[in-house]
Each structure stands twice: as C-alpha cells, then as structure tokens.
Amino acid sequence: MMRRLLLLSILALGVAGCATNYVVEPKPLTEYAPSVALDDVWSTGVASDAEDLNLPLVPATDGRRIYVASHDGSVTAVDAKSGDEVWERDLEVKDLDSWFGFNQDMHLSAGPGVADGSVAVGSSEGHVVMLASDSGKVLWDVTVSGEVNAPPAVGAGYVAVRTSSGRLVVLNASDGSVAWSFQSDQPDLTLRGAAQPIIANGMVYAGFDNGKLLAFDLQNGKQHWGYTASTPSGRSELARLTDIDGVMRLSDGNVYLAAYHGKIAAVDASVGQELWNADLSSFKGVGVDYSSVYTTDDTSDVWAYSADNGSVRWHQDALHGRKLTVPVPFGDAVAVGDFEGYVHLLSRDNGSLLGRIDTDGSPIVAPPVVVGNLLVVLTSDGELDAFRLAKQSD
What we know:
By secondary structure, the protein is an all-beta fold. The protein has one domain: Methylamine Dehydrogenase, Chain H. It is built from no helices and 38 strands. The chain has strands at residues 11-12, 15-16, 21-22, 38-45, 60-61, 65-69, 74-79, 85-90, 92-94, 103-105, 108-115, 118-123, 127-132, 138-143, 153-155, 158-162, 167-172, 178-183, 190-191, 198-200, 203-207, 212-217, 223-228, 249-251, 254-258, 262-268, 274-280, 286-288, 292-296, 302-306, 312-316, 328-330, 333-337, 342-347, 353-358, 369-371, 374-378, 383-389. A hairpin with a 4-residue loop joins β37 and β38 (383-389). Residues 1-21 have low confidence and may be disordered.
C-alpha cells in the first residue's frame, strides 16, 4: 500500500442542536524504527459506515464471524478466518409516501450487537431488528421512540437499546416485546451518539447524556445504583456537555468509563461505589486489560491508567489531533486507528510507538476488533481489513 501525504483536518463533534467545530491541528507522522510489524491477512469490501454522519456503526464479533452494519440498510457477516462473506441482508421499511407501496432502504444508525446466536441493529427511524447470526434471517423488527444511537446490547434473553431521546428500552430477545424502559433527564444540548449498554450478572449498565451511569435489574428495570461521572460546569452550553458516549468496559467486577468534560473512573459494578477517578475529557471511551485502562482524550492524546488505583502509567501525544479511535489491547500493544486510515500500535508498557500500517486512506472511526490473533479494522469507505502480528525472525 502506498503512503499518503498528511492533510490538516477539523475535529468535528456531532452535537445535537448545535453546529460547532473544534479546530485541532493533527501532528504529522514522523519516521521511527518500528519494533513490531503487521501482516495483511485478508481484506474485503463492505458497505460504508457513514463516517460523515457520525454514526455508531461498528464491527462486532462472536469469535467466528465479524458483523458489519451500514447506513444504507445492509448487514453483512464475514468469516473471521478467511474474510469471505457468509451472508448479507438488505433491510427495508415501507415507504409511507409512496402510492405504490414500495419499500426503501432502512437507515441503520447503530450496531451491530451480537450474542446468543443473534445480531441486533438499530435505525434512525427507531427500528430495532434482530437477525439470526448464522443465516441473516430477520427474526423480528420492532419500533422504539427515537433514533437508536448506540449499538444494542444482547444477552441473557434481552436486548438493551439506547435512543436519542435519552431512553433506555429493554426488549425480550425472543420476540422484541418491551420488558421495561427508563427515561433519563435529557440535557438540551448533547453530543450525537450514546454508549452501548452492558448486560452482565443479571444487570444492565447504561450511561446517559447527563453524565450518569445507572445500573438496573435486567428483568424488571429496578434501579440498583447511580454514579455521576460528569457534572455541568462552565458558562456556555457547549462547555456544560457531560455525555457518556464512549465505549464502557466491564472487567474484574468493575465498570470502567470516561465522560466528556468529566473523568475516567472505575466503579464497583455490584454497588456503584467509585474506586478511583482522574480528570479527563473523552467521548471515545476506554479499553481495558489485566493491568491498565486506556483512553483517547478529546484532543486524541492517548493515556494509560493503572486499573488498580487510577495513577497515570503513561501519556502519548505523538498522535495528537489525528482523531484516534478508542485504544484496543492487542498482543503486547494497544491499537488505534486514525483519520487517514492508519493503524498505530503503541506499547502497553510505556506508550511508545511500536509500528503502523495503512489501509485505504479513509478515516477509521470504529474501534478495531480483536478476533483471536487477528486485528480487524473497518474504514469509512467500507474496507474491512484483518492483520496479524508478524513473526519475528530469530
């Protein structure tokens, strides 16, 4: 693949009710001696994930296949080992403005969520669609109030859905019927998108645009505890944004999260007690391994914190302004994608740059996905690439 010239970019936050851009000049890539390399394993074309629309259409895996949803209504399953397409399903809705009853493409806005042999996606029109993971057969299609703005969470017989109206809707996975719902207090101004809920231990954990993380009983919706990760401050509405929009992780009985204009924190998943926090603003979320919590802040600096006590382990600003994804642990490194289609590997130990590889040149906005020994990356132009760490010579 050919290297490309770097261009200046604008870090554009999708803010509901406001059109505001923050200008963050990206650092140019510099030459260095890589200590690790990535080998291309396979590459395949899937539909675009509509990067310009700032939609949470991210790859998901069940360990055998990788599932990709597109804004044009297509859902694709790809074999993780070979990169071959297993199935593709084009989802449609009835065009109510048509005299002839024609259908039109469903405008997917979030997903997929994958578990228990099922794949769930959500649409801008409020559709939640469940498909069989082995065939792509549509199992059910229901409508909730508001755009689905986070990948649905699937597990334990339920589907948890976040909507643009600030609502959490929990559906029965068998037929899509509503088990219960919760309406949060919704600020007038929010970032576009939401954090994917987490289903585990008979609970559902959900982050909201008011900066709160709430834990509910999965079956009946009873709230067990609440935690505030960010509180409004500042004079302008923009400065008072408090969204929890990025990736949350559950690990070793703790929920790890980061909030915009708030903090990165570890919270005991059973009782909601804060274990530690550090001041940080991020709308990307966190990656977690056995020792560290990694995040990309809102200027695309990368940070690593001790999972035990929240102390800073390292800070890397060499990729400042490059609109990085959330860091994802991969081998002895953490992987991030950037706005020019580069994948960067950083040392888990000290954050040093270990290696990089380019894709098709379009932005990587979805977090990379680890499937066994493969790192899978989706670009905004719809290229799905799988990489493997190259074997080191003796």
